[in-house]
Amino acid sequence: MKEKAIFTAAVTGSIHTPTMSPYLPITPQQIADDAVRAYEAGAAVVHVHARNPENGMPSPDLGLIKEIITSIKSRCPAVICITTGGGMGMTLEQRVAPVTQYKPELASCNAGSINWGLFPALARYKEWKYDWEKAMLGMTEDFIFPNTFKTLREYCAHFNGTQTKPEFEVYDAAHVNNLAFLIQAGYVKTPIYLQFVLGILGGLAATVENLMFLVEHAKRNIKDFEFSVCAAGRAQFPMCTQGLLLGGNVRVGLEDNLYLDRGNLAKSSAEQVAKIIRIAKELGIAPATPEEARKILGLKGIDKVNY
């Protein structure tokens, strides 16, 4: 285990919808406020998506993204990790635009294509606050989240051009193989940063065995890497705890899980950050500061972003 681990808060994402929780941050102000609270609770990194402030729908609007990231930057020193996963229906160009425009220190980069199934959530709700929620969830029964080799090559060029560190989202063992190829082809330089994402329907299930396999698979095929763990829903805290035991970093937040514990909705991502840090401290692991996270991940520094 590490003496210090990086704790990331993914504060809103594009999966959960307003009907699912009244605490899901939607407006730029709410998203920035939740990110700052997560930093105050001990998160070194905050991962952000934008949403339409009128109805909560995931949005590629660069103006909304700028409003979020400039607000966070003005109020705390947290590392800001901008999404390139975006949301359902966004073009590949829209997804990568925040990297080319704002040149962040860190941004997510999905390491391969998968089926992405959110449609089982439809059975849990009889009424929806907005029409788009039901439509978006339903379309995922016939949806592939596209991240082709061509896309990965082009995204890596954008990342290299802006000196933005990719946080590679790994949903399946094949994605480790994809990254090994990108390294061999010279598109990506080691050490790389992996985020093992477990529990998405279409990706690997959230089990201890799968996480241990992914770590060992990466050690054999990539060797030089830092890793973090996140998991969907009720698996969040068990998998993150296992990630800490395996020497990794972890991500929590309302993007991944709306609950703090059984039947108890989290009122903010900060509550989840505080909980996982309490668990970590019981294991003898302290939270890394943003500056320590920058050193661990080899980031370019907040002075070199374009916002």
Note the topology.
Elements: E1 4-5, E2 7-10, H1 28-41, E3 45-48, E4 50-51, E5 58-59, H2 62-75, E6 79-82, H3 92-102, E7 106-110, E8 114-115, H4 131-139, E9 144-145, H5 149-162, E10 165-170, H6 173-184, E11 192-198, H7 208-221, E12 225-231, H8 236-245, E13 249-252, E14 259-261, E15 264-265, H9 269-282, E16 286-287, H10 290-297
Parallel strand pairs: 1-16, 2-3, 2-13, 3-6, 6-7, 7-10, 10-11, 11-12, 12-13
Antiparallel strand pairs: 4-5, 8-9, 14-15
Describe this protein's structure.
By secondary structure, this protein is α/β, with parallel strands linked by helices. It has one domain (4-115, 145-304): TIM Barrel (Alpha-Beta Barrel). 39% of the residues lie in helices and 19% in strands. The strands form 5 sheets. It has an 8-stranded parallel β-barrel, surrounded by 8 helices.
What labels would you give this structure?
307 residues, eight-stranded parallel β-barrel, alpha/beta
The CATH topology: TIM Barrel
The number of E-state strands comes to 16
- Give the CATH class: Alpha Beta
Q: How many DSSP helices? A: 10
The overall number of domains is 1
Spatial separation of the terminal alpha carbons: 35 Å
The proportion of residues in beta strands is 15-25%
Range of helix content: 25-40%
In short:
This protein has 307 residues and is an alpha/beta fold.
